[in-house]
Specification:
The protein is of the alpha/beta class. Helices cover 44% and strands 14% of the residues. It has 7 helices and 7 strands.
């Protein structure tokens, strides 16, 4: 267990060090009175309160561990790293403001946000200051036009990748079902997973597949039951079909 934790710390530290090395030349103009000749500032944005606050706290603690590890090995380019962290309260508006604040303080890169990745990714592109770490969904947040189109140049994530999730689910369905209905919400997670699944289905030429988009707060249980029982995705209530299907059912063989 200890060796696994050590391996993770080393990997995190190496990744952070590499990212900062790449970011320093890009952000050299960002130095201000908040930085000095002996340190390199790294920013952190994470939702440390609310429903997913424990995840944000873990992200900040992980950043502290990584920076301590990098500094213990001599830092980056002969300088020590320092961390400035803020709670975005899962607010995209606040997250964008905090990103600009960190850049004005001289941050060469910003970690997160795990809750508001699309907002921080957009700010990274606009300000040309790298956004790294667990940047929300690593699918649409980095590839806003889909996995077949170029990604954002200033966003790197080693977090979740819903394109891969969706593709994996579709791969399972191809083996065990006669048809596939994709039920998803309109968040970057839902849309990313739906995109990954649809891409896999298209490559495999699966004719009996459909995508159904539902609002965030709708209960998907009844919709899923209706879809499985009817053999054809039939949106009900606030849900809407976003692609068509023909026949089949999604019962395990």
């Amino acid at each position: 267990m200890k060796s696994r934790i050590l391996t993770r710390k080393l990997a995190m530290g190496a990744a952070l060090g590499a990212a900062v090395l790449a970011a320093v030349p890009l952000a050299a103009f960002g130095a201000s009175e908040h930085t000095n000749a002996d340190t390199i500032l790294v920013g952190s944005i994470a939702g440390t309160t609310g429903a997913y606050g424990s995840t944000g706290v873990a992200m900040v603690n992980g950043a502290k561990l990584a920076i301590a590890d990098v500094n213990a090995k001599g830092g980056v380019m002969g300088k020590k790293l320092s961390l400035e962290s803020y709670n975005d309260q899962a607010s995209a508006t606040l997250s964008s403001q905090l990103y600009q604040k960190l850049v004005s303080h001289g941050a060469v890169a910003v970690l997160g946000s795990g809750d508001t990745g699309p907002a921080t990714a957009a700010m990274a592109q606009r300000l040309k200051i790298p956004n790294i770490g667990a940047v929300d969904d690593a699918g649409l947040t980095i590839y806003p036009k889909g996995p077949s189109q170029p990604p954002f140049e200033y966003v790197w994530s080693w977090g979740l990748n819903t394109f891969a999730w969706g593709a994996s689910a579709a791969h399972y369905a191809q083996k065990h079902c006669t048809a596939l209905a994709i039920l998803h919400d309109p968040s970057s997670y839902g849309l990313g997973a739906a995109s990954g699944a649809a891409s896999r289905v298209r490559r495999a030429a699966v004719a009996r597949a459909a995508s159904v988009r539902c609002p965030r707060r709708v209960r998907l249980g009844a919709q899923a039951a209706a879809t499985r029982g009817g053999g054809r995705p039939s949106p009900s209530g606030p849900c809407r079909r976003t692609s068509s299907a023909s026949g089949g059912s999604c019962r395990s063989r």
